[in-house]
Amino acid sequence: MDRRTFLAVGGLTLAGTLSGCSAPSDDQQADGATAADSGQTGGSETAVAVENVVGGLESPWSVTPLPDGSQLLATERVGRVVLVDPADGTVTPVSGTPSVYAKGQGGMLDAALHPGFPDPAWVYLTYSKANDSGESATHLGRGRLDVAGAQFETFEQLHVAEPFVDSDGHFGSRVVFGPDGLVYMTVGDRQFKDFGPDHVAQDRTNELGTTLRLTPSGKIPDANPFTDDPDAMDSIFSYGHRNAQGMTVHPDTGAIWQSEFGEQDGDEINVVERGANYGWPVADEGCTYGSGEPIGVSHADRDDVVAPVYSWDCGSGGFPPSGTTFYTGDAFPEWTGDLLVGGLASQYLARFTVDGRTVKEATPLLDDRGWRIRDVVVEPDSGYVLVAIDSPDAPIVRLRPA
After folding, report:
1. pTM, whole model, 2 decimals?
2. Residues acting as catalytic residues
3. What pLDDT, in 10s, does the model give residues 173-208?
4. pLDDT tens digit string along 332-382?
């Protein structure tokens, strides 16, 4: 667990083609491997060194630097929250966490700090939990984190995305604070397969396949789009989503950006708008597993849905995107304003240039390591990039200029 540089490669040019992915675009466990890499951006090469910050984590799902840089807060899907000393890799479990339903794709999932952290010292967690019948749902809760004591002094459940479902998949579960100070939370469609207008993601009387917007205390904001609609849940901000596992805020516009799993291919990057329908499954660019048959129609064929700003169409090989963030640091000035998106089955870190809503993929990073990339964030002081690997015995690594 010592902090060491285990690879520094410079001056190499990588192929910018997308790695093929014949596996389904859902969350499947796989062990990682080690290989060599470098990055290239916008026609100029950037040499990247990769440092091991910590190893031996069990399926980490999120990594969040504390504002003072003293610790990283990481969640492990098996049900743990830990503090990691970024200087020496020391891992300290955090007590007082909620019990979780750690089966399939469920468990302890995302974390977000209150914008004022450490005053107040709220940490928001998303996690799956089961009811007495064994059905599960995505939950949001918050606890007051005592960093020195490595404990949540209090923890309270804020919201349950209903209904509970007999499924172990598609919990969604990213959470961020928007520029409005409100909490945005993704909820997956729980893998319902009735691909038609009656699908849960098109039914606003439930919270599945949605982005929810809540106050920091878990209440419903008065300005939510459907608060005056008796046939819609007041918590819904957007709907028609399949399973968004990446979400971040644009540093200049304040818009909410999401990365979302498709069925076979059909993965998406979306800019989330108030009250908008993102089409799943009546409008989609992907296809059904195995058969390759289209799901619904193209987004372009309906004027009541919002199309993705970037998608992997049926036959492309897909990407399965997870954690995502905009690069805002100084360490890699060539990447300023770019969108970084972790790839699971595709096993690389994607970098996209962004100009308004024009999104183009640049040369991939970490594309020959065999790593499923679950989360990516920027260290606030150094501008280095932290990457959480999805594996039963996983590292968190740091990318810095070589």
Report:
1. 0.90
2. 170
3. 999 999 999 999 999 999 999 999 999 999 999 999
4. 999 999 999 999 999 999 999 999 999 999 999 999 899 999 999 999 999
> In CATH, what is the architecture of 4-401?
6 Propeller (2.120)
Model pLDDT for residues 315-325, shown as the tens digit of each residue: 999 999 999 99
Q: Give the 3-state secondary structure of the chain.
A: CCCEEEEEECCCCCCCCCCCCCCCCCCCCCCCCCCCCCEEECCEEECEEEEEEEEEECCEEEEEECCCCCCEEEEECCCEEEEECCCCCCEEECECCCCCCCCCCCCEEEEEECCCCCCCCEEEEEEEEECCCCCEEEEEEEEEEECCCCEEEEEEEEEECCCCECCCCCCCCCEEECCCCCEEEEECCCCCCCCCCCCHHHCCCCCCCEEEEECCCCCCCCCCCCCCCCCCCCCEEEECCCCEEEEEECCCCCCEEEEECCCECCCEEEEECCCCECCCCCECCCECCCCCCECCECHHHCCCCCCCCEECCCCCCCCCEEEEEECCCCCCHHHCCCEEEEECCCCCEEEEEEECCEEEECCCECCCCCCCEEEEEECCCCCCEEEEECCCCEEEEEEEEC
Q: Could you tell me the residue ranges of all domains in the chain? A: 4-401
